[in-house]
UniProtKB/TrEMBL annotation:
One of its GO terms (molecular function) is DNA-binding transcription factor activity. GO terms for biological process: response to stress. SUPFAM superfamilies: Winged helix' DNA-binding domain (SSF46785). Residues 1-130 form the HTH marR-type domain. Pfam families: MarR_2 (PF12802). This is MarR family transcriptional regulator. The lineage of its organism: Bacteria, Thermotogati, Deinococcota, Deinococci, Thermales.
Length: 131
C-alpha cells in the first residue's frame, strides 16, 4: 500500500511537472522551483535545505542559471565570504511563466474533480502534512 500511494503521488507530480515544462524554454522544473525558493531565500545552503537537495546539486544548478542569465550573484554585505543570489528580470519572467504553466496544469488535472472533491483532497493533504 505504501508503494502504491507513493507511486501515485510521484506519477501525478511528474505528469504535472512535464506538462508545465513543455512550455518552458531553457528551464527545467527543478530549476524553476529553485528560482521560486531563491526569491525568498537567496543563499545556496538555505535553498538546498528547503528543497531537500544536496548543496553541490544546488550549486551546479545555480551556475547553470547564472550563465543563462536567470540569476545574478552578489557578495553578502554582512558577510563578505558568502554569496547571495537574486533573480534577474529574465529570471523573474521565467518564474512567472513557470508558475502560470504549473497552475494551468494543476487546474486541468483538478477539473476532473468536483469542487467538493477538491476541498476533500486539500483537507486530506493537510491532514497528511500534519503527521
Amino acid at each position: 500500500m505504501v508503494f502504491e500511494v507513493l507511486g501515485r503521488i510521484w506519477r501525478l507530480q511528474r505528469a504535472l511537472r512535464e506538462e508545465a515544462e513543455r512550455g518552458l524554454k531553457g528551464l527545467g522544473g527543478l530549476e524553476a522551483w529553485l528560482l521560486r525558493v531563491l526569491k525568498h531565500h537567496p543563499y545556496p545552503s538555505e535553498a538546498a535545505r528547503r528543497m531537500g537537495l544536496p548543496l553541490p546539486t544546488v550549486s551546479h544548478m545555480l551556475r547553470r542559471l547564472e550563465s543563462a542569465g536567470f540569476v545574478a550573484r552578489a557578495l553578502d554585505e554582512k558577510d563578505l565570504r558568502r554569496f547571495a543570489f537574486r533573480l534577474t528580470p529574465k529570471g523573474e519572467e521565467a518564474l512567472a511563466q513557470a508558475e502560470a504553466l504549473m497552475e494551468e496544469a494543476l487546474r486541468k488535472c483538478l477539473s476532473r474533480l468536483s469542487p467538493e472533491e477538491v476541498q476533500e483532497l486539500l483537507r486530506l493533504l493537510a491532514k497528511l502534512e500534519e503527521a
